[in-house]
Write a structure and sequence with these properties.
- By secondary structure, the protein is an alpha/beta fold.
- It has seven helices and eight strands.
- The strands form two sheets. Strands 1, 2, 3, 4, 5 and 6 form a six-stranded mixed β-sheet that branches.
- The longest helix has 36 residues, at 10-45.
Amino acid sequence: MPRRLDSAQRPYASRVARRRAQRRRRRAIALSLLSVAGVLTAIGTFRPSPDASEQVTAASAAPSSSVRQRRNASRGGAAPRPTVAYPVQGPSTFTVAPGNSDVLGTAGTRLRFRVAVENGISGLEPAAFANDVTTVLGSAGSWIGTRKWRLQRVGPGAAYDFTIYLVTPATRDKLCQDGYDRFTSCRMGDKVVINVARWVHGVPNYGAPLRTYRFYAVNHEVGHRLGHNHELCPGAGRPAPVMQQQSLGLHGCVANPWPLVDGEAYHGPLGAYQDPIPSG
């Protein structure tokens, strides 16, 4: 049976009970705060596993150029190509780009070609130049679009029908065997010769981007290997035929890099202008 308190003891007991209740509340609050702190700590230290690009970036305080290129690609920007440099006279030795392409085109005679870059040209690997050439020749507006030709790039040691060379200006003269020039590109027999100076700088007054001129240079010289001769501008303001010597002048026509225009083979009158070869 509980002990009954007299009137003198009741105020004291009431104060003791209030203190105990206050201590219990303080302990409960403290425990709650500790619990919240633990949760916050756990949230602050948890990280999802980084993806591969984050791991690469974290591995080096100064990322390599390949890492920077991947970052640029992830942001939608292509990494710039290195500057192409070359001497006027190279060693006349060449590196053939490795690998084979698919057969380009669906109908016509199949011809195999190699791509070779003269040693001494820096900033443009043979494989990169070969990819550019293959992209041009594999386009629907190129020679395969006529359905007379199928083309395939092959690597070192494979049988081939012609070679596309990227060469220094003086080696251009040696391979083309047409005297001092050093400006234009050419075709001689099974040699399709692209002058690196034109590949890098294009030509004055072309009126189109360098990329367009490069497409023209490849299609024009390969066109000679496929049996086509020079043609003239068919009329002012019209596209220049790809077999016109657009490197030397457009004669009222508009720059055009393709053998096909609007899906049809496009030609001008046979002939050549007597344009001078620029010096320098």
